[in-house]
């Protein structure tokens, strides 16, 4: 059994704090990802690191965090490849973010994709 790791980097573009930022990045391994007993690919994705900053009218601001969300998901599209899906949101207190569209966030997220590969033949 061979375990393979891939780092996938995302750039989170300026997004309103009242919205969710969504994007995807491709990932490919050198060999086929192993199937488990239910024919599911043995692969998962974890949050490696993130850095967000909040902007108000384009300038970086400090604020009291009202909520943050980062979710990652692997979506396979072949025997040895797929894409990592990112959903992210950062906002000040809900009353502030929902009433003032000048609040935005941006940043970076790194995901770690972990896959069990089929044995070499």
Helix-strand topology string: EEEEEEHE
Instruction: Work out the strand percent.
Output: over 45%
Strand order, largest beta sheet: 1-7-3-4
Distance between the termini: 12 Å
Q: Tell me, rounded to a whole number, the average pLDDT.
A: 90
Name the structural class: mainly beta
| Number of H- or I-type helical stretches | 1
Query: What is the subunit organization of this protein?
Result: single chain
Quick one: biggest sheet?
A: 4 strands, antiparallel
Low-confidence stretches: none
- The 3D shape can be described as elongated
What portion of residues is helical?
A: under 10%
Number of distinct beta strands: 7
What does this structure look like?
It is a single chain. The protein is elongated and about 60 Å long. The protein is 5% helix and 65% strand. 21% of the residues are buried. It contains one helix and seven strands, in the order ββββββαβ. It has 121 residues and is mainly beta. A hairpin with a 2-residue loop joins strand 3 and strand 4 (59-61). The chain has one helix spanning 94-99, and strands at 2-16, 21-28, 43-56, 59-61, 65-76, 81-92, 103-117. A four-stranded antiparallel sheet has the order 1-7-3-4, with no helix packed on it. Strands 2-6-5 form a three-stranded antiparallel sheet.
Helices, strands, pairings?
Layout: E1 2-16, E2 21-28, E3 43-56, E4 59-61, E5 65-76, E6 81-92, H1 94-99, E7 103-117
Antiparallel strand pairs: 1-7, 2-6, 3-4, 3-7, 5-6
